[in-house]
Amino acid sequence: MKSVVRPSIIATLLALASGSRVVADIQVIPPGKGLQSAVVIDSGANGVCETTVPLGTDDVQVITAGKGLANQAEIRCGTNMTADTTAAGDDVQLVAVSAGCANANTPVIDTGADGVANTTAAVDDSTVLAPGAGQANATCVTVGGNGIASTTAAGDDVQIQAAGTAKATTAVIRCGPNKVVETTANNVAAGDDVQVLAVNAACGNKNTIVVNSGPNGIAETRAQGPDFSVGVLYPVRLFMTKGKPSVSRTVRVAVSNIEFGASAPATRDYSLAVTDGSCPAGTVTQVDSNAGSLVPGLQATATVPRGGRVYGSFTVKFPVEAVLSVTATTPFRCSVDVEADAVDTAAFNAVDDGADTANNTMAVDIEVVDRNDLP
Fold first, then answer.
1. Is the dihedral angle over the CA atoms 122, 125, 126, 130 positive or is it negative?
2. Handedness of CA 172, 178, 180, 182 (dihedral sign)
3. Which range of residues forms the domain containing residue 332?
4. What's the whole-model pTM score?
5. Alpha helices, H only, 52-171
6. How far is CA 222 from the centre of its chain?
7. Which partner from 123, 231, 297, 319 sits 20 to 30 angstroms from 45, CA to CA?
8. Chain segment 119-169, per-residue pLDDT in tens
9. What CATH number is associated with residue 345?
């Protein structure tokens, strides 16, 4: 029995579309930038943001000046377990007046969209935020893409990150899955990044900080270690001819060695792994890590020069019973998962970071039209 196929939007894969990259140590902050999530200014004690980001800067206005953090608890139920207070302004009535509360301290009213309290508690309801106040110390401004603060606080807002600076001593590089340090600090530009763990040292776990941004807060380091990019060469569209029981295609992928750093080896061995993904079981066969090799047969591994590229391939096959086509414009669609793994052994005989499947896989979309199903 054929599977039911839902209509799908036809998408074209561009030649050499990039997939995820294998990076041994893990880059947290891009070189030349500061921490892009750093808080620059908070709302201070009154909870109302009073600072506006200057025009022409890339700081991010999280809360508009004159407002607080939206929908914060303002009035809570008292010991009588009944809501006694009616919301004012744009405050939001969470529990109807005279209705029972689930328990004491149940929020009865919140601050609404403007984040500023407008309501005075009645009877024994309790006040969390006084009228005119917002949630204290809410984030008003964060840094933009450059990670450097550009805004000076106004009113009682609190300056968390000084204008013209980036957040100091933040993680730039973390340890990868092999739990061995592979990155040398300041390998992009001479700077003040700090080598927290020595190269070749063992990490306590994946994500242990290897390099931090030092006093200036700017990353001057790029992660080192096995680094492959994988991409599909051509769109994969198959047409099953009338009267044929199946259709197959050899799919070619490019695997590039883009490893960075003076210590990077001249070559790196890799293995191509491909699984059926969302396609029918048994779709993928004939996986070849080096389709351009003159050696007969399928190659389990291939050597990729630093800065170079090799081509791998695999075969996909779809039997007639696996594909249903209502029209030629609504093909069966699924995807296979492609992975380029570094196979050489890192220091201390640890498994290489190419084994980190979260960083080195891509999905290859496949479209199939079964002309046996069409008029």
1. negative
2. negative
3. 17-23+227-373
4. 0.75
5. none
6. 18
7. 123
8. 999 999 999 999 999 999 999 999 999 999 999 999 999 999 999 999 999
9. 2.60.40.10
